[in-house]
Amino acid sequence: MAKTYQYCVAENWGKGFIDHVESSRITFKGYPGNVWQVPAYNKHGNLWIAKVAGSVKTKDEAQAIVNAEVTTAQNAWDADNVDGETAEQKEERIGSRPADITLEE
Amino acid sequence: MSDYKEIKGIKVQDLGADPPAPFAGEVWYNNSSGDLKYFAIQPAAWASGGNLGTARYKHSGAGTATAAIAMNGQPIPSAASTSEEYDGSVWTAGGTLANARSDGAAAGTQTAALTISGKLVPPGLQSVLCEEYDGSSWTAGGNMATGRKYIAGCGLQTAALAFGGNVPPSTTSTEEYDGSSWTAGGALGAAISYLAGAGTQTAGLAFGGTGNTSATEEYDGSAWTAGGSLNTGRRSLGGAGTQTAGLAFGGIPNIGATEKYDGTAWTATASMNTGRYYLAGAGTQTAGLAIGGQGDTAATEEFSGGGPATLTVGTD
Fold first, then answer.
1. Which among A14, A29, A32 has CB closest to B273?
2. Is residue B311 part of a domain?
């Protein structure tokens, strides 16, 4: 099955990382670990990856990076406790527990 | 190979200046600047903005896309009592607030901002305290009648509106600020927290919130009435714009979905490049700003509502 997306790792340096023209041409999705999803077999996606000097990853490699980041965040969330605090109070205090993320092929 | 004349039946115009009222698809050569230009309808899109100096979530934002301010939030202590100013490219440190807080609201501009209620951290209790910013330092503002967290706000420092939030429980309460004191306004139709706000004190907009609702309410300076429903219900979202030109973006469940409001109905537009929640918003429907968010992100995204624009071949 042909893949729909390709993945890369690139650090978002801020202004100019994704510009309006790039964003209007292709759909970007950012994930934890500086993982970015762009359309596969797409000139504009390839040009953007080159621009940001992205390190291209397979879907499985990208998923492993995202999983590691999410696990770290989940562990930090799990370890952040206050004596006598209920689960609801904890969620109020620091927000929801980071959810697992599944990348698309 | 075909050239422009074969395709269009006319030559590319050679002009000394850009035409004053070009039509969509028009192409010309500007012999003053040496640029080949065209006029096109640009789609709406989100682009990367400058990164915050301090990653933050559960914070507040105000101002415009080129003159914004972000304040408070988590993590504690790095974000809770700090503010940052944005010039359209770069965030720089702003004044330090007297109170460390998160989950509040904000109103006003970069040089005349108001931070509204929220919870003091620690201990995490909702507060009636508000602070005013003059572009360099924060000073105490008037105290609200009812402190609450997960509240929304809009308007100006001298004409602000605060509504909803969690006392607990969630409340319908609205309060109006005149620059020195808060007075009771009309009650929301439904008690709600984790909502977003836009507009002014006399033309406010409340949308999204608890239970990932799609509900919208409009304020006329005295009473709230039901507005059009969001296409994607959500809470802990960002908001910007006005009552008749609003913008909703992001929110739980971790989405980047963006919608535009015209005073009657919400329509979907370009999604953010990174879905997020617990973010702050600023700006307008055509030039919005999404600031920070969950995951302690420092990322900012800038929304362009699109529309007609003169572009240069090879650079745009």
1. A29
2. no
Same-domain pairing of B138 and B249? yes
Q: Is B58 part of the contact surface with chain A (CB cutoff 8 Å)?
A: yes
Render pLDDT for B142-195 as a digit per residue (tens, 0 to 9).
999 999 999 999 999 999 999 999 999 999 999 999 999 999 999 999 999 999
Q: Is the ipTM of this complex over 0.90?
A: no
Domain tally for chain A? 1
Distance (Å, whole) CA B92 – CA B53: 7
B73: closest chain A residue by CA: A94
Decide: B73 and B57 in contact? Cβ < 8 Å: yes
CB-based contact (8 Å) between B294 and chain A?
A: yes
How distant, in Å, are the alpha carbons of A49, A105, B284 from that of B83?
Answer: 33, 40, 21
B62 touches B107 (CB < 8 A) = yes
> How many other C-beta atoms can be found within 10 angstroms of the C-beta atom of residue A21?
16
Task: Say if A14 is an interface residue toward chain B (CB within 8 Å).
Answer: yes
Residue A98 lies in a domain: no
The model's pTM: 0.91
Q: Say if B313 falls within a structural domain.
A: no
Q: Decide if B309 contacts A24 (C-beta within 8 A).
A: no
Residue B159, SS3?
Answer: strand
CB distance B178 to B155 below 8 Å? no
Both B143 and B213 in a single domain?
A: yes
- CA distance, residue A37 to nearest chain B CA (Å): 10
Query: Does B44 contact chain A (CB < 8 Å)?
Result: yes
| C-alpha triplet A24, B281, A81: angle, nearest 5° | 115
> Does B223 touch chain A if contact means CB atoms closer than 8 Å?
no
Instruction: Spell out which residues of chain A touch residue B149, defining contact as CB-CB under 8 Å.
Output: 92
